[in-house]
Amino acid sequence: MSEINENLGKQEKSQRFQIAEPHDLSKRSKWLRDYYFKGAEREWNNQYMAFTTGTDWDIIWNEGDYYIVPEVHTYIGNKGKGVFASAFRSMAVSVKLPENFWELSLPERRMAFFEKVMLDYIPQEIISENDLLGGGRFNTQLSKCLNKNEASKFWKMNLEIRRKLFKFNKSGFGNLGATGGHIIPDYETILNKGFKYIHKKAEENYQKLNKKEKEGSKGQELRAMIIAAEIPRKLAKKYAEECRRLKEKTSSHERAEELEQIAHNLERVPWEPSETFWQGVQSIWLTHMLIISEESYPGPGTSFGRIDQHLWHLYKKDVIDEKTITKEFAKDILGSFWFHSNTAYDAMIKVGNQGITSGYGQLITLSGCGPNGEDLTNELTYTILEVIDEWHPILEPKPNIRLHRNSPEKILNRIIDIISRSQGAPFLINFDEKSIAGMVTEGISKQYAWNYACVGCLENTMQGNDRSGTVNCNPNLTKSIELTLWNGKNMPGNFIKPWTKDGEQLGPKSGEPENFKSWDEFWNAWKEQIKFIIKFMVEINNMTEELRGKYMPTPFLSTFVQGCIEKGLDVRNGGPELSFVTVNGVGFATTVDSLLAIKKLVFEDKKYSIEEIKEALINDFEGEKYVVMQTILKNKAPKYGCDNEISDELARKVMKTWGDETWKYKTPTNFQYRPGMLSWNYWAGAAAQFTIATPDGRKRGTYLSNAMCPTDGVDNKGPTAVTNSVGIALGGKTEGGEFINYLPSGSSHTITFNPSILRDPEHKEKFKSYLRGYDENGGTCLQINMLDADMLRNAQKHPENYKNLLVRITGYNAYFTAIGKELQDEIIARESHRM
Amino acid sequence: MIDADMGLIFEIQKMSTEDGPGIRTTVFFKQCPLRCIWCHNPESILKKPQLEWLKHKCIGCKTCIETCQEDALSFLEEGLNIDRNLCTSCGDCANECPSTALHMYGEYWDLDNLFHEIQKDKVYYTTSKGGITLSGGEPTIQSEFILELLKMCKEKGISTALDTCGYAPRKIYERILPYVDLILLDIKEIDSEKHKNFTGVSNDLILENAIWISQYIDTNNKKMWIRTPIIPNYTATEENIKGIGEFIINKLNNIPDRWDLLAFNNLCTVKYQRLDMDWPLKNYKLLRKEEIENLYNLAKDIGVKNVRWSGLIKKEENSNKI
User: Fold this and answer.
1) Does A11 contact B130 at a Cβ distance shorter than 8 Å?
2) C-alpha neighbours within 13 Å on the C-beta side of residue B250
3) Which of A643, A766, A773 faces B17 most closely, judged by CB atoms?
4) Which of A631, A717, A757 has the CB atom closest to B14's CB atom?
5) Is residue B257 part of a domain?
């Protein structure tokens, strides 16, 4: 029956396939969703508003926030004269500064400025009669409030960093830079104690300081935090006033009551503890929005954590026990939350559609286990899943669903039901046992590690006390192959003026590989080069972290990240109890497969010499001479991802080796480096472009492998085989069956299935079992796509018919029609697992 | 060569969802005693390994021609020509082919390696109540090998299924079935004469075995599924379905746990071409939905429990069942 199996669905898939559509939305939610999608045609939007201190030297747009996005490098320009910086300067509104402004310390200046802008310069608006939450405009570009001396020191250091960063990036080492967002602040405290408690805590800690400390940086930071903790109350009050104003104007009795309730909510939260579900959602939203405003960074990775746990007691009281609101109304409250989250994308609304690099991963984490492995799924989890399902396709907030050994059948059924109706699962699935093993690797005890959650795309962190800088470092592991083959130099001819010279000695001299007698010698040389790459990366990233810590504090966010008030240190300056910088290895499978090809074909089979391999790479496999060689390299060496012991063991060793290097370093701001494997679009963009041909047969410029995934097309043994490989590369399990995970930040794995896998109840059951098996044998995080190449090709030709077609890569959603043709082709070329 | 130590296998399919319950690894054994006109796996029929050439993978480097010691390969205008009379199935050309365009159907596996391959997916068998399925061809032809394999699986707690055409001596089933949890037995055509015309053999032995197997599984707490390929102009008749249904009810005492009707598909046309074999059904069209559903309803109405149908049907508006 094998032939039937492989071809099931082939003839019928195009008609089987349906693009997901929003459904069953209430009138209110439908209006908000439709309104959002009107985009630039809306009369209201949330585009960037820029504000300046009015000085000649003012810095508004911080290029450092965008160092990890190489597409933006072109626009940086010199000393704030680039496109973005100039545009924001010219549009910036001059803020009337308090009289003593320049006498204040930098953190206090920042908060005084922030407060002034949020209260007096940005209008407080309720978006139509359908909005149930206060909190409209939040996309800001705020002055960094530097004085002349600070600005001059900032630029001196920044220019040095920029030079180094460009060299790093343009010679193919990857990208890096301290980046905003990517944190789950302490929402449990905001909900249950309010900013009032935080304000008091900051005051108390300030009072504990001695005179000298009060005058020093601790005192400055704490005073700024004291100002900061009151901003939410003041802003909420202004929103409440706006509600009352609208209440006077409305002719609808029902709406008047709603506005009164919203006003009442805002007079209470986020200052006081939330007493109702509505207040809880309001409290989280207004707080979240203020983080984005303060960081002037619209939402990337600013995440909510386990929202079905945070809000459960309120939902249970209001919807289930006391029935003060209906489930439908609770969904409408969440609907407003969904709407506002998406308006983060308005930042550049006039410039155009947001593609794959629009990294606004405002994550919510759902379901998952408790301290003893018990399941914590509740009624609110299912209500939120309904909202996700009914609003889909939509970009924000992005859900991650935690599964584990004791996940109930009900949640798996619900997940599979949603997947079967969408072309890509509208959520990522995170696997608890493997993820928790990773948290334990970074030193968190099992007693706490169960309560981890995801930020950004899929990065695992703790909640409320952890900043793990989860996208700050993205080294291109593949560069190690080039450096090993050329004894620490770039390949001849591979350089970009003025950043690198031809044949420049970049890495250590690890030996001329032509002279290596054995694979072990090659392996040891490779290890020297990979160590160098991590060290080189740390050296530059440390500077970006230090610069940011020094000149761009965020006292507001710091107030509710545990550890910051206690230490009197900013969240960007080593304040959080858990402070990490995550290093995301890029091009993992390309690296492993390249090593495997050299091991097998050079050292074992002696089919080719190192000289021949190098010559072929220099020629980028161009010319008749190299056709056969390239084909053999592609097909005749083992590959990672096929559940083959030899290749997966090397994959594991490569993972352990580079990961271990990261643990050796800390930033000057006291953040510990840790490994992870999210690769966003780096594998497809700059890293690929700057990576020479590789010994696995890949040509220059072709995309590198993505995150934990095998190289495209080599994983031909089916989904279970690739799942097993991924689990093993992350460390597998101990002999006693304990999970091992080398990557605490987690690792992204995407599998594309043919829709026929979910064609009937029997097959849905099988798929459920596959997910349970994934939990045992696979990685930490799985993206499931249900795509079909015919449909994608059609979408390329007729984008107008596929506006809603959402594609997810490594946890990033993008509308297929909005991404470039190259990436579209890449997605089409992906191996689709037919079962 | 074929004995208890080595099995001749032409495919190992992981995460199979079509050969029994749960997630399975299906091992396809070479050689078959039947010659079904509609055979979907022509590569399974013969005892010897067979070479195929995949045009879309070929880079035209001619390594194969240089490798072949028998001069069995040559490039013609339409592509690589394999002289089947000269080819000794040595496999050297496939080993040397840079692009994997040349592929041998049939590879010898020893027991330990095969078991090692199978147990890699043990977790999924457990979570899904799946296991392994021995299929083919006809696995019972390699009875010594599969007996050892099945014993090994049972010892290690892996559930087993045997997909058989039923055309094997009773003695073989008697030896093997103690190590099999589920028997997938084909009853293709109830009329003995027609059966002989369609498959080359009469169904007398198959039906006798079916009766014995059904009694065996009934007393030994095992499961049995009947499978019937639904082939237009051949087995896709009401008469046949009625006949098999009544046989299941009356002779097998309605013991089988499930009856699968498997709709004809024509996707194997290309495999016949690649093996230089002619296929009389190459121009046959897929069944229409009403045709298969009609037979399915008939089967259900006879009273057989748990009747299912699957497979490809003709593309129609508003139809999305596969």
Assistant:
1) no
2) 8
3) A766
4) A717
5) yes
Residues B165 and B303 in one domain: yes
Domain check: are B85 and B203 in the same one? no
Beta strands in chain B (DSSP E): 6-16, 24-29, 50-53, 73-76, 79-82, 102-105, 107-110, 131-136, 160-164, 182-186, 223-230, 258-263, 307-310
- Same domain? B172 vs B300: yes
Q: Per residue in A470-515, pLDDT tens?
A: 999 999 999 999 999 999 999 999 998 999 999 999 999 999 999 9
Confidence band for A329, pLDDT divided at 50, 70 and 90: very high
Contact assessment for residue A605 and residue A559, using Cβ atoms and an 8 Å cutoff? no
One domain for residues B245 and B147: yes
Q: Is residue B100 part of a domain?
A: yes
Alpha-carbon span A816 to A405, nearest angstrom: 34
C-alpha distances in angstroms, A642 versus A138, A718, A723, A733, B254?
Answer: 47, 8, 9, 18, 43
Taking a C-beta distance cutoff of 8 angstroms, is the pair A708, A779 a contact? yes
Whole-number Å distance between alpha carbons of A598 and A696: 8
A627 touches chain B (CB under 8 A): yes
Please report the beta strands in A249-384, taking only residues with DSSP state E, as ranges in sequence order: 305-306, 363-367
Contacts of A607 in chain B (CB under 8 A): none
User: Nearest CB to A631: which of B59, B313, B319?
Assistant: B59
Nearest by CB to B18, from A4, A628, A643: name it.
A4
Please indicate, yes or no, whether residues B82 and B147 belong to a single structural domain of this protein. Answer: no
Same domain, B54 and B179: no
Q: Are A402 and A369 in contact (CB under 8 A)?
A: yes
- Cβ–Cβ contact B261 with A under 8 A: no
With an 8 Å Cβ cutoff, are B124 and A773 in contact? Answer: yes
Cα separation, B171 vs B148, in Å, equals: 16
Chain A residues within 8 A of B63 when measuring between CB atoms? 628
Q: Do A16 and B322 touch (CB under 8 A)?
A: yes
Contact A3/B121, CB-based, under 8 Å? Answer: no
The two three-digit tokens of residue B149, written as one number: 């394999």
The residue among B58, B79, B104 that closes a domain is: B104
Q: Which pLDDT tens digit goes with each residue over A143-202?
A: 999 999 999 999 999 999 999 999 999 999 999 999 999 999 999 999 999 999 999 999
The residue among A82, A85, A59 whose CA lies nearest residue A155 is A59
> What residue type is A666 in one-letter code?
K
User: Residues 710..739 of A with a Cβ closer than 8 Å to B: which?
Assistant: 717-721, 724
Taking the C-alpha atoms of residue A438 and residue A457, their distance in angstroms, rounded to an integer, is 17
- Is residue B320 in a domain? no
Q: Clarify whether residues B25 and B92 are in a common domain.
A: no
- CATH for B18: 3.20.20.70
Domain of residue B306: give its range: 6-46+107-310
Chain B contact for A272 (CB, 8 A cutoff): no
Same domain, B166 and B268: yes
According to DSSP, residue B308 is labeled: E
Work out the burial of residue A52: count CB atoms within 10 Å of its CB; fewer than 13 is exposed, 13-18 middle, 19 or more buried.
buried
Digit-coded pLDDT (tens) for A228-277: 999 999 999 999 999 999 999 999 999 999 999 999 999 999 999 999 99
Q: Which residues in chain B have their CB less than 8 angstroms from residue A5's CB?
A: 13, 16-19, 26
Domain harbouring B70, CATH code: 3.30.70.20
Give the total number of structural domains in chain B: 2
Q: Is residue B322 part of a domain?
A: no
As a whole number of angstroms, the distance between CA B214 and CA B192 comes to 20
**Are residues A2 and B268, on separate chains, in Cβ contact within 8 Å?**
no
Domains by residue range for chain A, with CATH? 473-760 (3.20.70.20)
Nearest CA in chain A to B62: A628
pTM of the model: 0.93
Q: Which residue of B has its CA nearest to A14?
A: B320
Terminal alpha carbon distance of chain A: 12
